[in-house]
Design brief:
The protein has 844 residues and is an alpha/beta fold. Among the domains are: 280 residues, FAD/NAD(P)-binding domain, CATH 3.50.50.60; 145 residues, FAD/NAD(P)-binding domain (3-Layer(bba) Sandwich); 156 residues, Lipocalin (Beta Barrel), CATH 2.40.128. It has 18 helices and 33 strands. The strands form 8 sheets. The chain has a 10-stranded antiparallel beta barrel. The longest helix is centred in the middle third of the chain and has 19 residues. The protein is globular and about 95 Å long. The termini are far apart. The N terminus is likely disordered.
Length: 844
């Protein structure tokens, strides 16, 4: 509902006149009702029945045969309007973060009674993409470490982890500690934990009357006759049977009327299947990557490739890297699971076909920090978002939002950054020519980025074979296998034989999310049904179009961030709160011209060459978006005092508003500073996770013992953890004069991740006894980094034989270039029993 404090004449009898405080901006302190949930609404309903103006309006609607719910409800002389946050109209979306944060912003950051939001949710749970239930786990061994069954399988596996840290996957005024507990918050939460976060957010800030579960919006019509525009929304109630795909043709259509409408229905609406010649004939062996949600799904898919068949992943972005890595891990686990026998053939091969090169970035990357007092540079390992969105990376002065066609100079700058962060060794993995076409600056293509911890080392070890090109045809045969024709960048063609199955990691389209809008609205929004990059032409940084000012968009762009959703919701609400009671939203000539210029820039970007000037994400400057929104809305970024005047990263908690959640804001900010400045004497969990990831693959080793020297090749082969207590696991095997095996495991503890080494039964590859654990010591980075090199040390004790293990890991970027392990008798400086030096095997 909306109380238009600034535009209308105050009435002495108005409830608004009894407010004990006044605010100069819409973001003043909120009023929290002391009534039970729904109490205020019941009072308004009673008052509306007594109000003459409400009765007159009801009679008018009856005359038009349109009466269902009053267009407006009158609370004495205070105008009360309703708002729709449509988060429902698409097959796989629920009341996700964009709809929830919009409703919460409207309710809690304006004087009580300003808005009454209603979220229409097609499903019977909130969460959007994110499941809200943890899957059941049972004891089991071998290939499947534990059950992943879920009571209602959604689009995301509940155990999948986010690829950005908890500080970015959050809203400003709900700390993860309030959801999972002070000691149980992982840096990269699992999907079910994200669902739990959204559930907690809704419980804290929204009532059941706001979130209408099981309500599917089927049509929305904008009516402009008679003055101020209004929205007619038609919806149907869905039963549990509807959710299982049963017939819904006979559902009764309900109608309601609203003053504003927000499309928060999600951008990734329907899996996209490219038009490839012959693919339909291979449909029984082709799936979209969104179908591979669980280990059971992977197992059924990999079975198609036994007897040496090839599993082909088609696509060049996030989902392709995830799908190829998941298949490679599954095959590696088949080879190396406890109890598996040694086989030389018969396992599937994994191929990845991408139309362009891309950077693959692990979740922890090195970040250079400069001490302002001494000028000393040190390196620390941070979650990639905390490093990449550090304000220190931007030029001095106000941070500007970069939007528009990508220039060659911008591409070169991005490529230089990733080369410096990832390191020479890591960036040499896979097909060359990242971002380059022919080596000329004018043909630089915008860099694409995928996030993945295991992909690069799977490629290095040839567990994934990569090819840059486009699939031109799929030729199925009677044998059940197919031949895939590939067009290479130079217009040459090759064919890939013996293809057993295909994963289409080709992304999603946003178009079904707009299907409930009428043609006149879509036309005003310059809707392009074939352009998933810019399906609409919007202004207000993707929130509005001035031609339809009473309609808004939150999170409706490729690659939405939670902080941007929150800012978009605030921007919409601030604009709508100043609406005139008679004419609605009125923009000044200056505002209209600014919005028109912004839409012109969107059209220019939409029409730019998609290969040379379109970035991966149209609104990809997260740091610039957050900072520019904050300036527009008058929000001051919270400082981080413990960082010694360094600006620190952009995260939602630093852009909070006055109101509820103050304690949560401080909790989040303190946790952020703790992770940016790990306690002395103990390295952060990030270091342990980065070491473990970088051990993957093969190493040449030389071992010096008291009376001999031996050498060979050692291999860290990933497999599913044989115990649910661990996050990841390697089977370590040596070839050479002596055959040695062990198991390396890592726990992703929120407080202190630890690598442990276990002795192995050589017959069935089962870990039988703990040898020692690695305690990571303080990082030993040089004061000035030399070509991205730095050293990390660790130590461990094996009390059963009174030995100490000292480790030295030499990093270049995100990769370990060499490492060594020295075993000595205790106490410290005891007799050296062995020293083993490892150097990376470089496949050719």
């Amino acid at each position: 509902m909306s109380r238009f404090r600034s535009q209308r004449k105050k009435n002495a009898r108005s409830i608004a006149s009894e407010d004990p405080w006044r605010v100069d901006t819409p973001f003043g302190p909120p009023q929290i009702s002391s009534f039970p949930a729904g109490g205020i609404q019941r009072i308004r309903n009673t008052l509306s029945r007594l109000s003459p103006s409400a009765r007159a309006e009801r009679e008018l609607l009856k005359q038009k045969s349109r009466y269902k719910i009053p267009l407006t409800e009158r609370n004495i002389d205070t105008l009360v309007t309703k708002q729709l946050c449509s988060d429902s109209f698409q097959p796989e979306r629920r009341a996700g973060p964009s709809g929830l944060v919009t409703a919460k912003t409207l309710l809690h950051h304006f004087p009580e009674g300003t808005f009454t939001p209603s979220i229409f949710e097609k499903h019977h749970e909130i969460g959007g993409l994110w499941p809200v239930h943890r899957d059941g786990r049972g004891s089991n061994s071998g290939l499947t470490p534990f059950s992943r069954a879920h009571e209602a399988a959604g689009p995301v596996d509940p155990s999948m982890r986010t690829n950005l840290s908890r500080f970015t996957v959050s809203f400003s005024d709900l700390a993860w500690e309030s959801v999972l507990g002070a000691v149980d918050v992982p840096m990269f939460p699992q999907a079910w934990q994200v669902g739990r976060y959204l559930e907690t957010y809704a419980e804290r800030y929204l009532s059941a009357e706001v979130v209408r579960l099981g309500c599917e919006v089927v049509r929305a019509v904008r009516e402009v006759a008679g003055g101020r525009p209004r929205w007619t929304v038609q919806w149907v109630q869905r039963s549990g049977n509807d959710a299982r795909g049963e017939d819904t043709e006979q559902r009764a259509v309900e109608t309601e009327y609203f003053d504003f409408l927000v499309v928060a229905s999600g951008y990734f609406s329907r899996p996209y299947t490219p038009d490839i010649h012959g693919l339909a004939a291979f449909a029984d062996r082709s799936v979209h990557s969104s179908v591979l949600r669980s280990l059971e799904d992977l197992d059924a898919f990999v079975e198609k490739g036994y007897d040496g068949g090839r599993l082909v992943v088609v696509g060049g972005s996030m989902s392709a890297v995830e799908a190829a890595s998941s298949l490679a891990l599954h095959v590696s686990s088949l080879r190396h699971a406890p109890g598996s026998s040694v086989q030389t053939g018969g396992f599937p091969e994994v191929y990845h076909l991408s139309s362009r090169p891309f950077w693959t970035v692990p979740t922890y990357i090195p970040h250079i920090q400069t001490d302002n007092a001494t000028g000393t540079e040190t390196v620390s390992l941070l979650p990639l978002d905390l490093a990449m969105y550090d304000l220190a990376r931007r030029p001095p002065g106000p941070v500007e939002y970069a939007f528009g066609p990508v220039s060659a100079a911008q591409v070169a700058k991005v490529n230089d950054y990733f080369r410096s962060v990832l390191g020479e060794d890591y960036t040499s993995i896979g097909p060359g020519g990242i971002g380059l076409e022919g080596g000329e600056e004018e043909t630089l293509r915008p860099s694409w980025v995928a996030i993945g911890n295991d992909y690069a080392e799977f490629v290095r070890s040839k567990a994934i074979t990569t090819t840059i090109g486009r699939v031109s045809a799929v030729r199925a045969s009677s044998s059940g296998r197919a031949k895939v024709d590939i067009e290479l960048p130079g217009k040459e063609s090759i064919s890939l034989d013996d293809v057993a199955a295909i994963v289409l990691a080709t992304g999603f389209t946003p178009f079904p999310s707009l299907a409930f809008l009428p043609e006149d609205v879509l036309s005003a929004l310059e809707y392009s049904p074939g352009d998933s990059f810019f399906p609409l032409v919007l202004d207000g940084k993707g929130t509005t179009n001035a031609n339809i000012p009473d309609m808004g968009f939150v999170g409706f762009y490729r690659g939405p961030y939670w902080g941007i959703m929150e800012m978009q919701a605030r921007s919409l609400a601030q604009t709508w709160a100043r609406a005139d009671t008679q004419n609605g939203i009125q923009f000044s000539e200056k505002e209209l011209e600014s919005k028109a210029q912004e839409r012109r820039r969107v059209r220019e970007y939409r029409n730019a060459d998609p290969d040379l000037h379109r970035g991966q994400f149209p609104m990809g400057d997260y740091t610039g978006l957050m900072e520019s929104f904050a300036r527009d809305l008058g929000i001051c970024r919270a400082p981080l005092p413990e960082l010694n005047e360094r600006p620190g990263p952009v995260v939602p908690a630093r852009y909070a508003l006055p109101g509820p959640g103050t304690a949560d804001i401080q909790t989040s900010l303190q946790a952020l500073q703790d992770n940016l400045q790990p306690r002395r004497g103990r390295a952060s969990s990030a270091v342990a996770m980065a070491i473990f990831r970088a051990l993957h693959g093969s190493w040449n080793f030389t071992r010096s013992e008291q009376d001999s020297v031996s050498s060979g090749i050692s291999t860290f082969s990933p497999r599913y953890p044989s115990s649910p207590a661990y996050e990841k696991e390697y089977l370590y095997e040596e070839s050479g004069q002596k055959l040695v095996s062990s198991v390396y495991r890592v726990t992703d503890s929120p407080q202190d991740a630890q690598i442990t080494v276990w002795s192995v039964d050589p017959q069935d590859k089962i870990a039988v006894a703990l040898s020692h654990g690695l305690r990571v010591l303080n990082q030993e980075g040089p004061s000035k980094l030399s070509q991205g090199a730095y050293t990390i040390r660790a130590t461990g004790n094996q009390w059963s034989n009174n030995c100490t293990y000292d480790y030295v890991f030499r990093f270049n970027g995100v990769a370990i270039s060499s490492w060594e392990c020295t075993v000595r008798t205790q106490p410290e400086h005891g007799v050296v029993l062995s020293r083993t030096l490892y150097r990376r095997v470089h496949n050719t």
